[in-house]
Structure formats: structure tokens, C-alpha cells
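Team,

Forwarding the record for the chain on the shared tracking sheet. I've put the sequence and predicted structure together so nobody has to dig through attachments.
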Amino acid sequence: MDSDKARDAPDTRVYAETLKPVEPDNGIEQTPPPFSLTDAELGRLLATVATEPVDVFAWVRYPAVSVNVQGRALAWTARAVYIEWDHRGTHRAWVWASAVQRGGLSG
């Protein structure tokens, strides 16, 4: 992310609970979706929406397993990050900030 561009761009802020989990439509293949933080866990906090997605590694929890995915941070609060990653389609979910590390796709 270009630091000068990020400094000059105004922050866009929305309530975190308005950014909902997204799962691809995989037809007849039924796989359980990953867990995303609940509205109560998000705590009615304002989230900063990235002017440009930030490449990250993040731990995502599914019902039977946790997976470390490469993806992009799209928004964040002080304690949670809204991430997007691709695996047979595009997924989006809220995870705890401590489950996210900068890096990822081009980092």
C-alpha cells in the first residue's frame, strides 16, 4: 500500500456489523462456511474501510478445522479484521485481529 496515498485518502468508516460474511455459491457442493465473528463480538464498533486492500495471512475457523489463508484485509476495528480470500470462489469473514498478520499475496 502506498503510504502517501493512504495518508491523503480520507478514512471511510462504517459500523462493523454492516459488513457481512460472504460465501461463494458452489452449486451442489455443500461445505460448511467458516465462522465469522457475531454482531455481539464486533461490539457495535466503527470499522475503518481500507482505501486499498492490505495483503494478509489470517487464521480462519471452520467447524472441523482452522486454516491459515492468504487474503486481503478490507476493514478493521481495534479488535477485529474483515478479510477476503479466494478458494473456489471469494469468501469474506470477520476474524479476531490477533489471528491476522500482514504479508500474504504480495508481501
